[in-house]
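HUMAN: You are asked to prepare a plain-text protein record giving the amino acid sequence and the backbone structure tokens, both parts labelled.

ASSISTANT:
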Amino acid sequence: MIRLFPYTLCLLALLSTNCIGMKVRNEITLFDSATLVRSDNYVVLGKGTGQDSAFFILGMIPVTKEPNVELAMSQALEKFPGGRTLTNIQIIREDRPYFPLGLVTVVIVTADVIGEASLPTVDEAIPNPKGTKK
């Protein structure tokens, strides 16, 4: 009984690291843009990220819907008002095992959000003379 204690302790330490969760990257996919960009009149608004996930009991039985790449892309686009489309898209699929419970699959989308270059309006182009109110 005393001899099994160190082995049991090592086994519990190994299993507890899986309960904490580790990341296993399965796929990394790169795309130029989400839609065809026909104009050079655009501005990169920033870098957007979005993600969607699914949970599987014992790694096989789905509890939630599959991770949706389109939902993750729309989340990345929603973070910038005035954003039209995505360029330089990177899609990462990660599996995060949680040992006795199951598996969480996460899809992460990182992309540059672009929008139209804004032209100055009439109010911005003509300065307001001092002393008058609009």
Residues 15 and 99 are 7 Å apart (CA to CA). The two ends are 88 Å apart (CA to CA). The mean pLDDT is 77. The first helix runs from residue 4 to 20.
